[in-house]
User: What shape does this take?
Amino acid sequence: MAETPDNSFDRAEALENSSVASRVDDWFVREVLPLETSLRKFLRRGWRNEADIRDLCQDVYVAVYEAALKEIPASARAFTFVVARNVLADRVRRAQIVPIEAVADLEALGVSVDEPGPERAAIARQDLRKLQAALERLPARWQEVVVMRKVQGLSLGEIVTRLGIAERTVSQHLTSGIAALANLFHDDPTDQGEQS
Amino acid sequence: MTRADELDTIAAQWIVRREKGGWSSADQTELDNWLAAAPGNRIAYLRLSDVWNRAGRLKALDQPARRRFFAFRRGETLKPLARVAALFVLAAAIGAGGYAWFSRSTDTRYATGIGEREIISLADGSRIELNTQTVLRLSHEANGRIVKLESGQAYFDIKHDPAHPFIVLTGQHRVTDIGTKFEIRTDANQVQVTLFEGSAQFESDNASVTRQNAILVPGDVAVATAASMRIVRKPTQKLMAELGWRHGVIVFDHTTLADAASEFNRYNRKKLIVTDPKVAKLTIGGTFQTTDTQQLTQLARDIFGLTIEDRGQDVVISR
Assistant: This one.
């Protein structure tokens, strides 16, 4: 008995389920990710070990995302910073140290939870400038492949041909470039700089 | 390396793997499983993809800005970068084409290979998604609001600006947005414009086309060939199915095997060949990953009892 290898009903259902998750994904990308520069600033003032900032940021994201799967918060900004304060408090408790800054109020940090915040309004305007600045700070080898891929629009195959190096190497540079670009994009270089 | 950094590396590897082309449904399943394994995985992937997609805007750097950009780092890096820049400028300068209005020095070319997709984010918030084997040129004149679709298929989500209408030129046709989401597909001898939201003006410069100018509303599909132009209306569900490619799938509904094969062949190097006219007329339905031809050949074998012959560079479906 031959079975239909493609069951469109199951697929339709799978597409629908994935659309629920994609609603949260869309919200997260649109509302939460643009807060990262402010979020890093906030975390840095409460936690002095620069090496942990990206991890703390990720912890905040996971908590925010999981909450949003149940119900999308009315204000992404307010919710994210409340979560950030909890994550910091938790980390401070576990570390059994009490840096003074960690207990500071959100208001004292200049984070207004009700206003829309400058991020979204300014993001279109700042995007290109921020991207360019991030690109300029990329290490040379990663920068080269990122420029070829994103500025010149070459395919991976074309990059391999032009550079005359192994595809594996190109892939590795590109992988590192993609990850570093996101960190540099969200990082404000004037905010006591990342460890390099 | 911190936890998050390790996660970033894996997420970035997925992005690179996806961009290599030849993305199969097995790859997609593997990615889906990884994404579903932990919210952290999904977040890392979303976060990197977000910036990586935004980086498409870097193409909007105009020539003087680009020269500045290439000049910022001296020494080792300047050489290969400058060499590539020179190649690029040269290629742009000698690129053939008789479109005098389309200044070669200020446009950017985007091209996707077989099975590839690309999202272009424009500075004004508009988005263009390119499907497989598509070539699009973006002019930096007219505020970057003129593009030329040279071949392939693209979806446009345009931020309307009455002062600067967004114009897509393709063949002898022109589409001007009036606050719009639309798709344009070009084939060997016809251009198809599908309108999803807002409205757009579709014009044809070809004198032999009887209906030269039309305002499209949602649900309209305009099909223009060298000699004719007609507008049909399609139900929303069918329209959305046509956009399946934006998620890497194609949806067939009473589609002949011949049409299904040629649709698959747009996305894959290994071509499906159907020569028997009776086999070609069999109809199928369902949702398929664009890069997974095996799903179709299995269906042809198991349901219709057809013979599948894999000849290395192509696959023949026959009785």
